[in-house]
């Protein structure tokens, strides 16, 4: 399906989007708050069809589904994938498809993975390989966003990481559309530093918060 998202179809899918960050615990520290048995039912209760239906009724064309790692992957040891978590994600994808909504699967994990830690970086790569393989044959408009607001100052190293993650995904799904951003919180200037990766089926994105006092008014932190 991802190969069919081109030109007008891609533009239509991305025309009007909204974040859903309340479903999959993107702001949860996997080490300090590891997965618990009760989390499955709690999270399942959040995935409600009426919300997907409302988003579609309001005229949105896609959902940016903000994902945390804790429900997808063990926090310690070999960092195995959680089948029960993947099944919850499947349910959200099914509801989006039922209401003709495209999806951006956005790894929104905060705190972000520590790229310099070999185990954490290997887990990040394994996560994207798993999602790519699982959804390669889905007849659905799905884009992968590698990481929201990367916390890394070395633009050259981030560029390497992005290329490696893209290669991992494309090994399972050669035509997948992938959303990439620059280092250091994904600002416009850092996207420019990263430059054109000269790879097919990429969407480049940046975050713009100026004036910060207005865009973040009321933020308790």
Trace the largest sheet across and list its strands.
1-2-3-4-5-6
Spans with pLDDT under 50 lasting ≥5 residues? none
Task: Outline the biggest β-sheet.
Answer: 6 strands, parallel
Query: How far is the first residue's CA from the last residue's CA?
Result: 40 Å
Radius of gyration: 17 Å
Structure class:
alpha/beta
Total strands: the figure is: 6
H-E string? HEHHEHEHEHEHEH
Percent strand equals: 5-15%
Helix content: 25-40%
The overall average pLDDT, rounded, is 94
Shape: globular
* Number of helical elements: 8
Describe, in short, the structure shown.
The chain is an alpha/beta fold and 221 residues long. The chain contains eight helices and six strands, in the order H-E-H-H-E-H-E-H-E-H-E-H-E-H. The N and C termini lie far apart (40 Å).
Task: List the topology elements.
Elements: H1 8-13, E1 17-24, H2 37-46, H3 49-57, E2 62-67, H4 83-98, E3 102-107, H5 118-135, E4 142-145, H6 155-172, E5 178-180, H7 188-194, E6 202-204, H8 212-215
Parallel strand pairs: 1-2, 2-3, 3-4, 4-5, 5-6
Helix pairs in contact: 5-6
What features would you describe in this structure?
The protein has a 6-stranded parallel sheet with strand order 1-2-3-4-5-6. α7 (188-194) links the parallel β5 (178-180) and β6 (202-204). The chain is built from 8 helices and 6 strands. α5 (118-135) packs parallel to α6. 40% of the residues lie in helices and 14% in strands. The chain is an alpha/beta fold. The model has no long low-confidence stretch (mean pLDDT 94). It has helices spanning 8-13, 37-46, 49-57, 83-98, 118-135, 155-172, 188-194, 212-215, and strands spanning 17-24, 62-67, 102-107, 142-145, 178-180, 202-204. It is globular.
């Amino acid at each position: 399906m991802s190969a069919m998202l081109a030109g007008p179809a891609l533009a239509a899918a991305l025309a009007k989007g909204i974040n859903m960050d309340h479903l999959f615990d993107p702001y949860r520290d996997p080490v300090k708050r590891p997965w618990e048995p009760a989390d499955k039912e709690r999270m399942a209760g959040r995935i409600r069809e009426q919300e997907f239906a409302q988003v579609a009724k309001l005229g949105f064309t896609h959902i940016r589904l903000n994902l945390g790692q804790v429900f997808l992957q063990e926090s310690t040891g070999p960092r195995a994938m959680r089948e029960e978590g993947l099944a919850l994600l499947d349910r959200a994808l099914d509801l989006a498809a039922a209401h003709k909504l495209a999806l951006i699967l956005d790894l929104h994990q905060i705190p972000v993975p520590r790229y310099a830690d070999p185990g954490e970086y290997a887990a990040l790569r394994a996560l994207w390989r798993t999602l790519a393989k699982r959804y390669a044959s889905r007849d659905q408009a799905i884009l992968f966003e590698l990481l929201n607001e990367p916390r890394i100052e070395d633009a050259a190293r981030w560029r390497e990481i992005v290329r490696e993650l893209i290669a991992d995904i494309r090994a399972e799904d050669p035509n997948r559309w992938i959303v990439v951003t620059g280092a250091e919180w994904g600002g416009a200037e850092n996207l420019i530093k990263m430059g054109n990766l000269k790879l097919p089926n990429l969407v480049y994105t940046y975050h713009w918060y100026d004036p910060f006092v207005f865009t973040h008014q009321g933020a308790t932190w």
